[in-house]
């Protein structure tokens, strides 16, 4: 039975979905990485929010793990690189909590502008400090968005409703999109110099870490207010504190902290700082959305091979998955055939899709071909998640070509592998029964179905070979299931693909290799 571990607080809707799909669910909340590593080996899927730390050590212990699902957006608590290297798919739910988080950012901006938290606390204490809490209007103020993706663009929309002027720094924001959003695209220095309020909406990456430091703050307008509902590491807190103390920054609203849970922080207690405990995504609606989405995505992946919102592999929709499935088998076989037939370093791989298959989503097929190709070298450490990366790391030059017009076959995949010594191709099709057939090897036509154990022979096309091979196998008790033949030209190179009813013992393979006319013989396993 497929097993999933939920290691952070998730709406019960997630458990319900997993169970309805026949997946066994265990909930263990609040595990430290060591505790998570101790139990993760038992699970096929792991569902998390931001609290669980899915470190390289946790992933190293995750022998069966196929997918990590993040019920939310930021994946900085997951070592995606380590997951990719181990062939574990990482997916998130990029659109489940974006409205809620944008609304929280706007709420924080208003709280800052009108001192709501401090005024609330003072009023509860029976003080009536009207003159202490004079705020500022948002109307006609400039809001600078650092990061204008899903959340940033919703914040822009809401801020425009408040009649603010919105400017955005985001190197990946196209001028057309900026125009659509009605925001002015600016560089970071211009944003810092012009904004009355700055709201951060980028992921935490090596480029964005410590983006708001003393140097950036020095470029800001006096009295700027800063809102961070993205990630703690974007702001250098000591620099922010100094700027708050000097009055350069009039206020800061922080939902996120470099260390969470944040029970101590140099900014806690500062009168001009508003804090919330990473509540950006904490609304009933958002939590329901992300729980449902992550449970559906993970179930679809674990049960049907559908891939949605993955950060480290190509998407496959639930509709595509059944159409791709027979091709996946063919792709796997072609890759595995070429991988087992290749003895020297691979330099170049070309995959051509012809006819019907060319109209499909072929990225997962290419990933499977690479997986099959690399498996003889790397065994179980390679799978379709990490195969493209592994190929790249090995300097294998990959080319994909699609020809939607049909050739000799209604549909065809051709794989060509170039090594330092030679270039070889293998092509396969699907017949009406959806079963894969190999139809061409090294330019020689053949019609073969690949079984679990195959003998692949290249020989000189001379009389007597087939009889001698059959006798040799028969004399050694090896039953032939199917026998497919092809040749380049009369008397030229010929190939035989023989399905046998079990593994070929090494001594029999050597005897086949020693037969006259045999150029090369290999035992292949599928
Ligand atoms: N506080 C919360 O509870 C909460 C909730 C959801 C998301 N988040 C955080 O908000 C972040 C943004 O979420 P999103 O859905 O808008 O993501 P997104 O990917 O849609 O948008 C991020 C934007 O940042 C931009 N960006 C990347 N590097 C940049 C750089 N160096 N400088 C400027 N811009 C850069 C990208 O181009 C993109 O447009 C998430 O990564 C997550 O960390 C926090
Ligand atoms: O990236 C996110 O989606 C937010 O930071 C939400 O985190 P949470 O799921 O832990 O509330």
UniProtKB/TrEMBL annotation:
GO biological process: L-serine biosynthetic process
Domain of life: Bacteria
Keyword Amino-acid biosynthesis: yes
Entry EC no(s): 1.1.1.95
Keyword NAD part of the UniProt annotation: yes
UniProt catalytic activity: (2R)-3-phosphoglycerate + NAD(+) = 3-phosphooxypyruvate + NADH + H(+); (R)-2-hydroxyglutarate + NAD(+) = 2-oxoglutarate + NADH + H(+)
EC class (word): oxidoreductase
Metabolic or biological pathway, per its Swiss-Prot or TrEMBL entry: Amino-acid biosynthesis; L-serine biosynthesis; L-serine from 3-phospho-D-glycerate: step 1/3
Keywords from the named record: Amino-acid biosynthesis, NAD, Oxidoreductase, Serine biosynthesis
Domain ACT residues, every copy: 454-526
InterPro entries (alphabetical): ACT-like_dom_sf, ACT_dom, ASB_dom_sf, D-isomer_2_OHA_DH_cat_dom, D-isomer_DH_CS, D-isomer_DH_NAD-bd, NAD(P)-bd_dom_sf, PGDH
GO molecular function: NAD binding; phosphoglycerate dehydrogenase activity
SUPFAM superfamilies: ACT-like (SSF55021), Formate/glycerate dehydrogenase catalytic domain-like (SSF52283), NAD(P)-binding Rossmann-fold domains (SSF51735), Serine metabolism enzymes domain (SSF143548)
Protein task: Catalyzes the reversible oxidation of 3-phospho-D-glycerate to 3-phosphonooxypyruvate, the first step of the phosphorylated L-serine biosynthesis pathway. Also catalyzes the reversible oxidation of 2-hydroxyglutarate to 2-oxoglutarate.
Protein family: Belongs to the D-isomer specific 2-hydroxyacid dehydrogenase family.
UniProt protein name: D-3-phosphoglycerate dehydrogenase
Native source organism of the sequence: Dongia mobilis
């Amino acid at each position: 039975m497929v097993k999933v571990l939920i290691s952070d607080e998730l709406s019960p809707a997630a458990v319900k979905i997993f169970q309805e799909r026949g997946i066994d669910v265990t909930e263990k909340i609040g595990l430290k990485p060591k505790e998570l590593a101790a139990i993760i080996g038992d699970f096929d899927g792991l569902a998390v929010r931001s609290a669980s730390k899915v470190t390289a050590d946790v992933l190293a212990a995750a022998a069966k793990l196929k997918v990590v699902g993040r019920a939310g957006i930021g994946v900085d608590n997951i070592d995606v690189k380590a997951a990719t290297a181990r062939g574990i798919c990482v997916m998130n739910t990029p659109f489940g909590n974006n409205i809620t988080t944008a609304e929280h950012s706007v709420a924080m901006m208003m709280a800052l502008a009108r001192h709501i938290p401090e005024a609330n606390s003072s009023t509860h204490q029976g003080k009536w400090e009207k003159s202490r809490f004079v705020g500022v209007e948002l109307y006609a103020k400039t809001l600078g968005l650092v990061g204008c993706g899903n959340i940033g663009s919703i914040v822009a929309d809401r801020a425009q409703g408040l009649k603010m002027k919105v400017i955005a720094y985001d190197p990946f924001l196209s001028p057309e999109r900026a125009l659509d959003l009605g925001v002015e695209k600016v560089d970071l220095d211009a944003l810092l110099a012009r904004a009355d309020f700055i709201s951060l909406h980028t992921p935490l990456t090596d480029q964005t870490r410590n983006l708001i430091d003393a140097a950036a703050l020095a470029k800001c307008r006096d009295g700027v207010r800063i809102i961070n509902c993205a990630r703690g590491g974007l702001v250098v807190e000591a620099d922010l504190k100094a700027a708050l103390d000097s009055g350069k920054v009039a206020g800061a609203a922080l939902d996120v902290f470099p260390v969470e849970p944040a029970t101590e922080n140099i900014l806690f207690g500062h009168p001009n700082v508003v804090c919330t405990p990473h509540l950006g995504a904490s609304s009933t609606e958002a939590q329901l959305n992300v729980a449902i989405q992550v449970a559906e995505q993970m179930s679809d992946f674990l049960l049907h091979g559908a891939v949605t919102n993955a950060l480290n592999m190509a998407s496959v929709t639930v509709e595509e998955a059944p159409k791709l499935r027979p091709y996946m088998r063919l792709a796997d076989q072609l890759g595995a055939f070429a991988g087992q037939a290749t003895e020297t370093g691979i330099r170049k791989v070309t995959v051509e899709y012809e006819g019907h298959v060319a109209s499909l989503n072929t990225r997962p097929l290419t990933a499977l071909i690479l997986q099959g190709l690399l498996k003889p070298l790397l065994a179980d450490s390679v799978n379709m998640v990490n195969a493209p990366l592994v190929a790249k790391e090995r300097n294998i030059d990959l080319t994909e070509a699609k020809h939607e017009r049909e050739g000799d076959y209604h549909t065809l995949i051709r794989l060509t592998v170039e090594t330092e010594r030679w270039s070889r191709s293998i092509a396969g099709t699907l017949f009406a029964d959806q079963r894969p057939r190999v139809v061409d090897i090294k330019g020689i036509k053949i019609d073969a179905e690949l079984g679990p154990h195959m003998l692949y022979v290249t020989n000189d096309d001379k009389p007597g070979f087939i009889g001698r091979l059959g006798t040799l196998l028969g004399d050694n008790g090896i039953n032939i299931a199917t026998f497919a033949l092809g040749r380049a030209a009369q008397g030229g190179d010929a190939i035989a693909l023989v399905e046998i009813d079990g593994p070929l013992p090494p001594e029999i393979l050597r005897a086949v290799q020693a037969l006259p006319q045999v150029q090369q013989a290999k035992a292949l396993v599928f």
